[in-house]
Amino acid sequence: MDFIERIAPLAIKYMNQEGILASLTLAQAIIESDFGRSELAVEANNLFGMKANSTWKGAIYKKRTTEIVNGRTIDIESNFCKFISQEECIKYRSTVFLKTDRYKPLWGVTDYRVAAQTIYECGYATDPKYPKKLIDVIEKYKLYEYDQKTTHTPEKEESNAMPKDDMKGHWAEKELKKAKDKGILKGHQDGSMRPDEPVTRAQIAVILDRLGLLD
């Protein structure tokens, strides 16, 4: 389906970077946003029903929602994260929202069934049927196949990949080459450096370790 194909590359990308299964990301997006058609998805680019907690510093979208508390269904108004794009939404979920201690048991889980149960037990949703709903969607659309992917670049986009000499002419060409030669920075599998690509916390930690600053 178009929705799955559109966000799958991002789900795979952040699975490889942060250890959150792509199948779980896709299944949650499908359930929480109704394939990108929900009010939150359309008005706030929020595909996962993420509420604005202390880690969110951006815009807010207010919406009434149904919660299950002590077996009772209640209706309350909640503050949700409002994103500039769906990509920002997926990135925030993978690199910030699910990277708090609350969701630590989810990190690195490789079985989608375990991941579905774990994210519920961590308190992501209040519906006790949530794990089964996730598993049903994953198996219906064979989303587990995305968990085997190792690259977030679709084949049809390979021709648009950046050239291997993408440092040439860059304003920091000299410094980039020095960093690469000393092994501080490493390029991508295609040989490119992609000098303007954002750096994650994990990548910063690796760089600091290469510099010997973590010893």
Summary?
The protein has 215 residues and is an alpha+beta fold. It has helices at residues 2-18, 22-33, 39-44, 86-95, 112-121, 130-140, 173-181, 201-210, and strands spanning 59-69, 72-82.
The rounded Rg comes to 19 Å
**Structural class of the secondary structure composition?**
alpha+beta
Question: What is the fold-level CATH name, i.e. the topology of the largest domain?
Answer: Lysozyme
Put simply, the count of helices is 8
Q: Provide the number of structural domains.
A: 2
- Tell me the overall shape: elongated
Number of extended strands: 2
Unreliable stretches: 151-163
Instruction: Report how far apart the termini are.
Output: 48 Å
In the CATH scheme, the class of the largest domain would be Mainly Alpha
Give the % helix: 25-40%
What is the average per-residue confidence, as pLDDT, rounded to a whole number? Answer: 85
Q: Order the strands across the largest sheet as they lie in space.
A: 1-2
Largest sheet: 2 strands, antiparallel
Pfam families: Glucosaminidase, SLH
Domain SLH: 159-215
InterPro entries: Glycosyl_Hydrolase_73, MGlyc_endo_b_GlcNAc-like_dom, SLH_dom
Protein name: Glucosaminidase domain-containing protein
Structure report:
This protein is an alpha+beta fold and 215 residues long. It has 8 helices and 2 strands. It is elongated, with a radius of gyration of 19 Å. 26% of the residues are buried.
